[in-house]
Recover the amino acids of this structure.
């Protein structure tokens, strides 16, 4: 199929133009381990490839390097018929630097090229007019003025695009300007054609005066982050409940049809219990992607990164690490995906490696059970704060502090060869804009689809293996199953923590998903539906009179251990390195065990 | 003085970019408009030596100290 390549600098409205060209006929192709996201769609008889926004062909980071490498690869292919470089008409100077580099490259490879001068609606708003014919003549390339947002000029652009892309490579007229010195030429052309900076930046600087004010900006920052944090729980909850109810209903129907026996138990426990339970997290991921998408498209995310950069830099992290850390308190999976916004590969890797230490929502039932069982409810710290509440807060803080300390430690180590190409913190603050729903919705839907595609196979395999171990020999009960027998074998490992084989099995099974701990322990204590009846189970555990040190040790274990196979699968996909993902799984497990042992001994 | 020394709301004109910076970073800065004799305005100074925010041409750019103190300026009134 004949191909059209879409390139441009970040925030030039390229994604929206891509959406206007391709409609729903698009898909995302990911390159594991990098933030490069290449989207492909269909426009008439052409395949349109949307390349990631790039500031320059002279790359600074690994991610940019891969993006430019892909542009170069595409240019030498015969299928590539046309290059479209999208320019932000309100930021002509900055857009032209990259556009002139691309123009030189297209001429070198004898490819058709045209410039799409986007956002002309904003120029009209300021009564500014660019002489398109003259600009086109000076550059020696067709220039089409349009607004992907209001659709002004888009039909003409499409027509011109079809004609140009269908034609054989044509000899472009010689440019009247020096395209080999993009910086100076851009400045000269911008002086002649562009809207003055004082007008372009007037509104942006006015909003920044508030949002980047040292006092008011901080208040706004915490307000926005609080809203984000709340939305992950409140907006996602009804959707998650809906998915859960749907799965339960489906499970009910399927298990009623199936005769009782091996197949029935397998479908009910392994398929719906194991695989089905992870689908519940999909709405949370989509809501989070939606909120972060709004923050990013509106231009605020760059400001949040700027505000957080200094405090996080003490721990070897970037300002951009903040959002993934915050998201990690809901669920590590979307948080690891959100780390894609971090430009520095090294800091992105460190952020992804430490996100699992944030206390995610799956830890909540475990914390609730153990606190109710081990921490007295009638004790108050300093006579004011309920000790159970203080313990909750302390567990969240312990997770954050551990993550920062691990980050500081990792930043001292040379993690990858990408260390050499460390991206310094140079951040262009984009214009504030109202996000457009089309690219945002595509991103939200894709985030859910990608999550399912990546995590489902791993969850499926582990669920099946655990189910088989717990089910056979048939009718033996959990204690005498292969899993139970294994529990007795591993009992000595958990004995130093003051725990018997039941806890060993529960802790081991919770390496699939930590919330499994409550359910397994409930079954082993003979209480059905323990998930919903934490108080009854807590009483039973408390009645056994285990020392408080054992309880604290268990809590510490659950703060630190990476007990979520879906997270490991996501880590593997996002880092492109299975060793890192499974290594962390093991290392956080060992660290959790050591800290728990220390707590048991000391307390 | 360097860009890092520029007080909030003050103007400056770039006189030199130190070659202590990585060549790739210098090239990127030039492409962003950091060139000799270009004017900059400091829009924000962050507490605890956090990144500064400056206006340069039609862009607003944030830079950390490691880079800002390697960009030299003539001061303007």
């Amino acid at each position: 199929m004949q191909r059209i390549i879409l390139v441009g600098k970040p925030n030039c409205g390229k994604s929206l133009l891509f959406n206007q060209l391709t409609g729903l006929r698009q898909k995302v192709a990911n390159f594991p381990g990098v933030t490069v996201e290449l989207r492909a769609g269909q426009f008439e008889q052409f395949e349109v490839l949307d390349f990631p926004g790039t500031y320059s062909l002279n790359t600074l980071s690994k991610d940019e390097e891969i993006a430019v490498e892909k542009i170069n690869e595409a240019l030498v292919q015969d299928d590539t018929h046309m290059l479209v470089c999208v320019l932000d008409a309100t930021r002509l100077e900055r857009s032209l630097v990259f556009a002139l580099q691309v123009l030189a490259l297209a001429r070198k490879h004898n490819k058709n090229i045209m410039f799409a001068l986007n956002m002309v609606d904003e120029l009209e708003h300021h009564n500014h007019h660019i002489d398109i014919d003259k600009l086109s003549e000076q550059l020696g390339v067709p220039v089409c003025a349009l607004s992907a947002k209001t659709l002004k000029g888009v039909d003409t652009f499409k027509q011109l695009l079809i004609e140009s892309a269908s034609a054989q490579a044509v000899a472009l007229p010689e440019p009247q300007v020096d395209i080999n010195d993009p910086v100076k030429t851009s400045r000269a052309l911008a002086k002649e054609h562009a809207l003055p900076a004082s007008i372009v930046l007037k509104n942006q600087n006015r909003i920044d005066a508030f949002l980047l004010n040292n006092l008011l900006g901080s208040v706004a920052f915490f307000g926005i982050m609080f809203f984000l944090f709340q939305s992950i729980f409140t907006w996602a909850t009804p959707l998650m409940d809906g998915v859960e109810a749907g799965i339960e209903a489906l499970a009910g129907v399927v298990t009623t049809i199936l005769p009782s026996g091996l197949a029935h138990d397998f479908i009910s426990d392994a398929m719906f219990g194991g695989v089905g339970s992870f689908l519940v997290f999909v709405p949370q991921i989509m809501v989070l992607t939606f909120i972060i998408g709004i923050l990013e498209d509106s231009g605020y995310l760059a400001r949040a990164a700027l505000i957080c950069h200094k405090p996080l830099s003490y721990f070897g992290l970037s300002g951009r690490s903040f959002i993934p850390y915050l998201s990690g308190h809901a669920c590590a999976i979307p948080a690891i995906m959100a780390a894609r916004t971090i430009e520095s590969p090294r800091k992105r890797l460190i952020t992804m490696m430490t996100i699992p230490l944030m206390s995610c929502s799956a830890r909540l039932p475990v914390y609730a059970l153990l606190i109710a069982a081990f921490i007295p409810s009638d004790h108050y710290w300093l006579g004011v704060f309920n000790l159970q509440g203080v313990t909750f807060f302390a567990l969240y803080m312990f997770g954050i502090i551990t993550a920062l300390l691990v980050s500081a430690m990792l930043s001292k180590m040379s993690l990858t060869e990408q260390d050499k190409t460390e991206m310094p913190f140079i951040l262009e603050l984009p214009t504030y804009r109202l996000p457009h729903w089309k690219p945002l919705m595509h991103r939200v839907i894709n985030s859910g689809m990608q999550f399912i595609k990546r995590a489902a196979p791993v969850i499926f395999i582990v669920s099946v293996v655990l189910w088989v171990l717990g089910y056979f020999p048939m009718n033996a009960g959990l204690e005498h199953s292969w899993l139970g027998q294994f529990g007795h074998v591993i009992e000595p490992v958990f004995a130093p923590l003051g725990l018997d084989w039941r806890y060993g099995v529960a802790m081991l099974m919770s390496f699939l998903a930590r919330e499994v701990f409550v359910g397994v322990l409930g079954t082993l204590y003979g209480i059905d539906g323990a998930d919903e009846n934490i108080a009854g189970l807590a009483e039973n555990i408390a009645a056994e009179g285990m020392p408080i040190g054992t309880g604290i040790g268990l809590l510490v274990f659950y703060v630190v251990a990476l007990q979520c196979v879906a997270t490991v699968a996501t880590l593997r996909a996002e880092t492109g390195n299975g060793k890192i993902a499974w290594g962390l799984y093991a290392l956080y497990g060992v660290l959790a065990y050591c800290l728990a042992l220390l707590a048991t001994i000391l307390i | 003085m360097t860009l890092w020394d520029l007080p909030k709301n003050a103007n400056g004109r770039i006189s030199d970019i130190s070659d202590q910076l990585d060549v790739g970073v210098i090239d990127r800065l030039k492409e962003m408009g950091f060139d000799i004799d270009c004017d900059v305005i400091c829009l924000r100074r962050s507490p605890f030596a956090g990144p500064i925010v400056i206006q340069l041409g039609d862009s607003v750019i944030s830079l950390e100290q490691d880079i800002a103190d390697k960009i030299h300026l003539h001061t303007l009134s």
User: Anything to note?
Assistant: The two ends of chain B are 14 Å apart (CA to CA). Chain B has a mean pLDDT of 90. Strands of chain B lie at 11-17, 39-44, 52-56, 59-63, 71-75.
